[in-house]
Amino acid sequence: TLAAIIASQAMISGLFSLLTQAYAARFVPKILVLHTNPDHVGQVYIPEVNWALCIACLVICVIFKTSAKLAGAYGIAVTSTFLITTFLLAVVIRTVWRWNWFATIAIIL
Questions:
Q1: Tens of pLDDT, residue by residue, the chain (109 residues)
Q2: How many helices (H) and strands (E) does the chain have?
Q3: What angle do CA 20, 48, 15 make, to 5 degrees?
Q4: Which of 48, 74, 75, 105 is most buried as measured by Cβ atoms within 10 A of its Cβ?
Q5: 20-21-25 Cα angle (round to 5)
Q6: 3-state DSSP call for residue 12?
Q7: Do the Cβ atoms of 80 and 12 come closer than 8 Å?
Q8: Strands (E), the chain
Q9: At what angle do helices 2-24 and 67-91 cross, to 10 degrees?
Q10: Phi, psi of 34 (to 5 degrees)
Q11: 24, 43, 18: which is closest to 33 by C-alpha?
Q12: Cβ-count burial of 12 within 10 angstroms (0-12 exposed, 13-18 middle, 19+ buried)?
């Protein structure tokens, strides 16, 4: 069950990180963000994201079936986050900073 907790936390952190970066790069439309604590900026509730996470978690639990197999979800979440973040960085380097392909690839690798 510890693996399930770690995997679910990785999904939450990864999805919110990706959403923040995608929104900053204007890849996603404006969405409703509810701040649950006025003193802490990072404590937010985004209904669409929470429902997507709920459905994703249920699907993953059905697919993996055991906590031991669910530990693989952690690796999938982390690897996916790295890949998508790297892609978004490349997009920013090319479109916002207007660097050439050689510099972009040198930074990415």
A1: 676 677 777 777 777 778 878 888 888 888 887 888 888 776 778 888 889 888 987 887 888 888 777 777 777 878 898 999 999 999 999 999 999 999 999 999 8
A2: 4, 2
A3: 40
A4: 74
A5: 120
A6: helix
A7: no
A8: 34-35, 44-45
A9: 20
A10: -105, 120
A11: 43
A12: middle
DSSP class of residue 1? Answer: -
Contacting residues for 99 by C-beta, under 8 A, at least 6 apart: 93, 107
Q: Which residues pair with 45 in a beta bridge?
A: 34
Q: Which of 52, 34, 51 is nearest to 43 (CA)?
A: 34
Token code pair at residue 80: 């996916």
C-alpha–C-alpha distance, residues 41 and 35, integer Å: 7
Around Cβ 42, how many Cβ atoms within 10 Å? 9
- The residues near 56 (Cβ < 8 Å, ≥ 6 apart) are 11
CA distance 31 to 64: 31
